Amino acid sequence: MTTVDHPPAPSLLSQSLIEAGRLLRRWSRQPDVITTTLVLPILLLLMYELVLAKSLDSASDVDPTYGFVPMIAVAGAMYGATGTGMSLFRERENGLLRRFWVLPIHRATGLVGRLIAECARAAAATAVVLVVGVVLGLRFQQGLLGVLGVLAVPVIVIIGFAPLVIVVGVSRAGDKVVQFFAIVVLLGMFFNSGFVPVDNYPGWLQPVVRWQPMSCAIDAMRGFTLGGPIVTPLLWTVVWSIGLVLVFGALAVRGYRKAARS
Question: What is the DSSP letter of 198?
């Protein structure tokens, strides 16, 4: 009796990488994703540098560029996720999620692949912002380790932020995802340690500004570029990301499953 050797079934990782590649290729052709991921962060960085740098230079002994670049990189990674959230809502509405759900692939492929694609998008967007920052005067005084650290921090942020975007994107209110998160990111951009030093905020507001997730990420990135504390802000960035995953991860899985079955 002869036996037929069947090829091994693709693993979750390989299927997720294929899905991530599909998403990245699709996003590269979507103007809204390109705008929120690349165009808007670059324009914001140039605006902050050209309009506000001189007026804010007297408020701190540190060049404002070392606060602006991390702030725009983190905000750009977060705001860029709104474009992909809108893309997810479109896939829900046109039935693409349902078609993927009935294919003989691992059920977690859609979420894992999307998370990998989000991390790749955040890293690419951060790299572009850093290049513009270098042109504007940013220098990496911590060497190659500093460059890798700065690239990694927004990725850590997006790991925690992506489940929240997925929860909204697969809901019936997913078409409002851009407006909703635009407000969240805008508030975060005005109340963080990269805009002005925390001591410049009212005393009652300083703890909120100092420990909000964007400030922790910005402080870690500033430490990787200019020098200074790294471990504490980086640890808090990881804690924030893990906390958001624990809170919204299950909701994202439940919402994705419901959207794919509807």
Answer: G
Q: Are 72 and 41 in contact (CB under 8 A)?
A: yes
| CB 84, CB 118: distance < 8 Å | yes
Highest mean pLDDT among 29-33, 125-129, 252-256: 125-129
- Work out how many domains the chain is built from and give that number: 1
Specify the residue for token string 């294929």. Answer: 18
9-18, pLDDT tens digit by residue? Answer: 568 888 889 9
Q: What is the domain range of residue 214?
A: 12-52+61-195+202-261
Which residues are CB-contacts of 56 (< 8 A; sequence separation ≥ 6)? 64, 195, 196
In a domain, 3, yes or no: no
Model-wide pTM > 0.85 = yes
pLDDT in tens, 128-178: 999 999 998 888 888 888 899 999 999 999 999 988 888 888 887 777 776
Between helix 109-135 and helix 12-27 the angle, nearest 10°, is 50
pLDDT value of residue 54: 66
Handedness of CA 243, 245, 248, 251 (dihedral sign): negative
Residue 5 lies in a domain: no
User: Nearest 5°: CA angle at 33, between 250 and 218?
Assistant: 70
- CA–CA separation, 179 and 181 (whole Å): 6
SS3 call for 2 = coil
How far from chain centre, in Å, is Cα 75?
8
